[in-house]
Amino acid sequence: MKTKTLAYLLWFFLAPFGVHRLYINGLKVWLIWLAVMVLTVGVGAIIWQIVDLFLIPSAVYAANERTRAMFTPDITINHVTSANETRID
């Protein structure tokens, strides 16, 4: 599970490299962030960092929900009929 504390620490100390994005969202989002930084000569990344300051809590929550969904089994309840009961589906 990812934590907001670690995400904010990564944002604070390593924001120019977008490491918090790598931690929260993975490689694909981080590569997009890196491309924005390079293509806008850092201006887009600075704006994105300010936005990230407010988006980190919801991003961590969403990442944890994705992880939880991957590892939680899908439980279905099957209807069991007794000998005297007929089942119509």
Low-confidence stretches: none
Count of helical segments? Answer: 4
Averaged pLDDT, please?
Answer: 85
Number of separate strands: 0
Domains (count): 1
Give the distance, in angstroms, between the N- and C-terminal Cα atoms: 40 Å
Task: Using the alpha-carbon principal axes, give the shape.
Answer: elongated
What's the main sheet like? Answer: none
Strand-and-helix sequence, N→C? Answer: HHHH
Q: What is the strand content?
A: under 5%
Helix-strand makeup class: mainly alpha
Q: Which range best describes the helical content: under 10%, 10-25%, 25-40%, 40-55%, 55-70% or over 70%?
A: 55-70%
Radius of gyration, in Å, reads: 22 Å
Note down, in words, how this protein is organized:
The chain has 89 residues and is mainly alpha-helical. It has one domain (4-71). It is built from four helices and no strands. It has helices at residues 4-14, 19-25, 27-39, 43-71. It is elongated, with a radius of gyration of 22 Å.
